[in-house]
Specification:
Elements: E1 4-5, E2 13-15, E3 21-23, E4 28-35, E5 47-52, E6 57-62, E7 64-67, E8 74-75, E9 80-84, E10 95-101, E11 106-108, E12 152-154, E13 161-164, E14 168-171, E15 179-184, E16 191-194, E17 202-210, E18 220-228, E19 231-242, E20 249-252, E21 255-258, E22 262-271, E23 278-282, E24 291-294, E25 297-301
Antiparallel strand pairs: 1-2, 2-10, 3-9, 4-5, 4-8, 5-6, 6-10, 7-9, 7-19, 10-11, 12-25, 13-16, 14-15, 15-24, 16-23, 17-22, 17-25, 18-19, 18-23, 20-21
Length: 323
Amino acid sequence: MARLSCYDGHNGYDLDMAFEPVLSTASGQVIRAGWFNAVNHNSSLGLWVAIDHGNGLISAYGHLSAILVADGDRVGTQWQIGTSGTTGASTGPHLHMSIYYQPSWNVTDPFGWSGRGRDPNIVRDRYLWVDTPATRLVVPYLGGSRVYPGAILVDDGARGWSSTGAWRSDFFRTNIRGDVHWTNTGGARATATWRPTIPADGYYEVGVYVNDTHATSSWVPYTIYSINPANPGLTIAHTVRLDESHIGIFGGPFGTVNTGTRWVSLGTYYFRRGTTGSVVLSNMTGESGTQIAADGMEFVPAAGGSNAPSGGAYLGGNINVQP
């Protein structure tokens, strides 16, 4: 379990999670998914997700590096909704998690009040956790800077990688095998595609390598094309938004931050054997004057399963449990 920390005046818990998959605490509907402050990305929770659980409670997850959901999505218990990071008012990679009461967003302590005196909160703090989670998901940790052992790697410029539009190449020692391709946002459309050769049908966690050069966009779209295991003839397209600007060396609200290069999880998906699956990156971010980088993509066999909601995204959890 990740280490927890909290302090006076802080309306939640900080979990020591460095670029790790973030799972929903319970089923519900996504009511926030994006930047907390669209103008200042070093403000408050940064890239965040909030879920209305339909029982008067809202869970919120902040400082994410990627979000796998969108407003209005329905999610189940322990579905991957994002990947932790260090966006917003953050001093380094971690996850901020808060629980609120509807309708006024009154924060509560999900571990309850255990002091000797009276609970000082304006709402009653109760222990909200269940002893036995309804679902379990086991995925590899891809958040380091090295290729995961046994991963299927597709590197830019190598077999399985293709591009459209104008891309430039560069070489840095921190890149996968040295090279990286990059392009600008706000101009003519450009795409990059990673098409792995999958050895066997199954679930694979997809990770993208974000280097510390030519990666300054804060709203990069990666679309994963996978298969619905319940209907192998159906291809599913799901778009994940990733922030590249808070990876590597950058100026944070409390000074310079250096996360180093990172693999960032884009979620767990079902792929058929062969080359039918792919990941496509586009420079259509809605920004102007930033750059996006295309380096390595890895596909790592994952234990457990994933759910397929009506929207088509594989978000994690137990294949036999639907919300």
